[in-house]
């Protein structure tokens, strides 16, 4: 606009993505940098806040051999960074009936026998963007300490980076999902208040309220949403 | 006597009774087994390929955690009760000592751990019990009478001979121990023949064949009880008995369960097992009475 | 091809198959040789002759690495260790010698069996 005013030039860093070099503003996350270049995310993006695990990436920094991993929405770009997106770890979704299982390692090993192939190389732990002790969790399953395994991977966001790095080809994402389910169903203390609330719902206590919401107009819903009981920032 | 203790995955999952009885027996004779704060799966079978260093990682990590604890506890002996863990840990330890360049390669990969300084000594519970035989003898309150007990060693505490706890051709360490405690031992020439091990998963008929030879020979020679020290041997022998057309009257148990019974450590034994022991062993009444008075 | 396989077997095992004088001790002491169509000493002979047909040498998968032959081999050829090398020729291609989902009582056997089998039979 104004020619007199000296525009402060944005400092840029050079990143490499799919074989091409791009200069992008310093301080951006990988996700924002790729959007700055012109890519539009349709999949491999979610919460943008480091919680959903949809935007896993792998990268190498200038002058390093280490293959680093992270989330595109949480990792800032650095000069000389080579980047690839790994938004998804390929694996078939296992089918099982929790009612027919117990909190015992055999039920997990039957679906995921490859857990027995773990060589304790620690690649999974190194890859975890949540800094979880992934290897220890897998080892805990082998010794039937499902509770400890569930505890160790409580903060897992299912990004799949461990599964992509694992030389034993363990399907951590679904293993840990099952571990959490078995621990919740069979090993952890029951949440009494939840059981009571479910009973209330089943007895029809909230039917009238739901009915009212179903019939409400968009404007009414918007108003209700804005006025909802929530902690203000 | 203080020892570092490595349980192993199977002991924690499928052989809880083995661990319970082992630790109780050790405690009774004044051995304090301190479980490592952190340990990893040893791999169950030692990798024989000389360039396959990755397969040793779990064992090396465990040795490093043992080393850390050994500084705090001032003991270098790492106790194992599972023979496969014993075999792998001892062989890896030996390999690292003899080929330090391999340890260097492994260490440069495991950059998050402290270097291993070769100061851990892997021992099996049999070796410990054998050393403390006098303590055991002193504490016996039940004998086993004339009932025949046969020993099954399996492979991995004996072979390869470089790491074995006894002569692999004619092992007698457990028999000698039992004899000194007054047990009538029945010999079994197949006591160190492989039971078929992991083939129970993919070739069970092979396991049934080998284990049948082992069980039948012991039975034929008059054994009512076969003692073993391996959770997989125990599983395989028991499974094999289930396949017999004619029921054989022989029970497979852990050695330490028998010792726990003889030491009167009933709180670590199943009621069913105690009942079995009470029926199968005809006791010396004098010992029984003195025990009753104590109770 | 077989020359290359031979070279690899020697490299992975660190043993010299040519030292074998075919005494047959390994086969005699092997607890599972009755389940092998090609016996331990015969496998070593095939390797000496560099006739290494992995399809034909299937009995290496029956070997349990119990070390009975390794302890007794008078020539330190150590068949059990050579068999591990032959298994590795297959496993290092990323192939498995068993199908996990055909295994019996996988959820009930002691963990050590599943781990041992995984180490010896999956690539």
Regions of chain C with pLDDT < 50 over 5+ consecutive residues?
A: none
What is the architecture of the largest domain in chain A at the second tier of CATH? Orthogonal Bundle
The helix-and-strand class of chain A reads: alpha+beta
The total strand number of chain A stands at: 5
Average pLDDT figure of chain C: 97
- The N- to C-terminal Cα distance of chain A equals 36 Å
Q: Provide the CATH topology of the largest domain in chain A.
A: Fumarate Reductase Iron-sulfur Protein, Chain B, domain 2
CATH architecture of the largest domain in chain C: Orthogonal Bundle
The total number of structural domains of chain A is 3
Give the C-alpha Rg of chain C.
Answer: 14 Å
Structural class of chain C: mainly alpha
Greatest chain-chain contact: B-C, 42 and 39 residues
Number of separate helices of chain C: 6
What is the percent of helical residues of chain C?
40-55%
Give me the strand/helix succession of chain C.
Answer: HHHHHH
Topology-level CATH name of the largest domain in chain C: Fumarate Reductase Iron-sulfur Protein, Chain B, domain 2
Element-level helix/strand string of chain A: EEHEEEHHHHHHHHH
The CATH homologous superfamily of the largest domain in chain C is called Alpha-helical ferredoxin
% residues in beta strands of chain A: 5-15%
Which regions of chain A have little confidence, pLDDT < 50, spanning 5+ residues? Answer: none
Helix coverage percent of chain A: 25-40%
Describe the structure.
The complex is a heterotrimer of chains A (233), B (295) and C (123). Chain A has ten helices and five strands, in the order ββαβββααααααααα. Chain A is α+β, with helices and mostly antiparallel strands and 233 residues long. In chain A, strand 3 (56-60) and strand 4 (68-71) form a beta hairpin. Chain A is flat and about 70 Å long. Chain B has 295 residues and is α/β, with parallel strands linked by helices. Helices cover 48% and strands 12% of the residues of chain B. Chain B has helices at residues 9-13, 16-28, 57-73, 83-98, 100-109, 125-131, 133-139, 173-180, 204-220, 231-243, 255-262, 271-280, 285-294, and strands spanning 2-6, 32-35, 77-80, 121-124, 148-152, 184-186, 223-228, 251-254. In chain B, the strands form two sheets. Chain B has a four-stranded parallel beta sheet with strand order 2-1-3-4, with helices on both faces. A four-stranded parallel beta sheet of chain B has the order 6-5-7-8, sandwiched between helices. In chain B, helix 2 (16-28) crosses helix 11 (255-262), helix 3 crosses helix 4 and helix 4 (83-98) packs across helix 5. Chain C has 123 residues and is mainly alpha-helical. Chain C has two domains: 2-92, Orthogonal Bundle (Fumarate Reductase Iron-sulfur Protein, Chain B, domain 2), CATH 1.10.1060; 98-123, no CATH class. Chain C is 45% helix and 0% strand. Chain C is built from six helices and no strands. Chain C starts with a helix and ends with a helix.
């Amino acid at each position: 606009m104004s020619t007199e005013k000296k525009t402060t030039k944005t400092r840029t860093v050079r990143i490499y993505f799919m074989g091409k070099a791009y200069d992008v503003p310093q301080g951006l996350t990988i996700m924002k940098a790729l959007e700055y270049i012109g890519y539009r995310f349709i999949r491999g993006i979610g919460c943008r806040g480091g919680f959903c695990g949809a935007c896993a990436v792998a990268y190498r920094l200038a002058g390093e051999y280490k293959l680093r991993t992270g989330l595109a929405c949480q990792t800032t770009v650095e000069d000389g960074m080579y980047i690839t997106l790994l938004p998804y770890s390929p694996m078939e979704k296992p089918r099982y009936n929790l009612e027919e299982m117990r909190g015992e390692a055999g039920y997990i090993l039957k679906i995921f026998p490859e857990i027995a192939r773990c060589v304790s190389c620690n690649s999974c732990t190194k890859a975890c963007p949540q800094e979880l002790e992934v290897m220890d969790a897998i080892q805990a399953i082998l010794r039937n300490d499902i509770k400890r395994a569930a505890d160790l991977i409580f903060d897992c966001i299912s990004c799949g980076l461990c599964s992509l790095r694992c030389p034993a080809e363990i399907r951590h994402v679904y293993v840990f999902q099952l571990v959490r389910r078995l621990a919740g169903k069979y090993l952890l203390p029951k949440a009494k208040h939840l059981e009571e609330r479910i009973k209330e719902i089943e007895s029809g206590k909230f039917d009238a309220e739901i009915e009212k919401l179903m019939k409400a107009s968009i404007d009414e819903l918007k108003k209700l949403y804005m006025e909802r009981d929530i902690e203000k920032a | 006597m203080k020892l570092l203790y490595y349980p192993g995955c199977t002991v924690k999952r499928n052989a809880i009774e083995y661990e319970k009885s082992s630790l109780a027996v050790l405690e009774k004779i004044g051995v304090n087994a301190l479980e490592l704060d952190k340990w990893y799966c040893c791999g169950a079978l030692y990798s024989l390929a000389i360039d396959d260093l990755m397969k040793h990682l779990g064992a090396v990590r465990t040795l490093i955690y043992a080393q850390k604890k050994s500084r705090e506890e001032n003991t270098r002996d790492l106790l194992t009760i599972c023979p496969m863990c014993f075999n792998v840990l001892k062989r890896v330890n030996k390999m690292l000592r003899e080929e330090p360049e391999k340890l260097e390669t492994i260490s440069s990969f495991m950059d998050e751990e402290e270097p291993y300084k070769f100061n851990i000594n892997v021992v099996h519970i049999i070796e410990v019990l054998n050393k403390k035989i006098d303590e055991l003898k002193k504490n016996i309150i039940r004998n086993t009478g004339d009932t025949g007990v046969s020993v099954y060693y399996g492979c991995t505490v004996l072979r390869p001979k470089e790491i074995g706890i006894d002569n692999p051709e004619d092992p007698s360490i457990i028999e000698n121990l039992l004899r000194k405690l007054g047990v009538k031992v029945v010999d079994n020439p197949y006591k160190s023949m492989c039971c078929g091990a992991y083939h129970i998963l993919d070739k069970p008929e092979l396991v049934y064949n080998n284990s049948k030879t082992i069980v039948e020979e012991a039975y034929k020679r008059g054994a009512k009880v076969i003692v073993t020290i391996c959770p997989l041997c125990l599983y395989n022998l028991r499974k094999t008995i289930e396949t017999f057309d004619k029921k054989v009257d022989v029970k497979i148990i852990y050695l330490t369960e028998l010792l726990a019974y003889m030491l009167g450590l009933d709180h670590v034994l199943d009621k069913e097992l105690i009942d079995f022991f009470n029926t199968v062993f005809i006791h010396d009444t004098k010992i029984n009475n003195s025990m009753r008075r104590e109770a | 091809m077989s020359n290359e396989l031979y070279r690899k077997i020697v490299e992975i095992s660190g043993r010299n198959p040519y030292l074998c004088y075919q005494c047959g001790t390994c086969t005699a002491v092997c607890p599972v040789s009755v389940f092998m169509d090609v016996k331990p000493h015969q496998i070593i002979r095939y390797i000496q002759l560099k006739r290494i047909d992995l399809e034909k040498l299937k009995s290496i998968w029956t070997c349990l690495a119990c070390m009975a032959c390794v302890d007794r081999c008078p020539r330190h050829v150590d068949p059990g260790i050579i068999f591990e090398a032959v298994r590795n020729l297959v496993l290092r291609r990323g192939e498995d010698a068993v199908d996990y989902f055909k295994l019996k009582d996988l959820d009930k056997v002691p963990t050590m069996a599943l781990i041992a089998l995984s180490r010896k039979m999956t690539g």
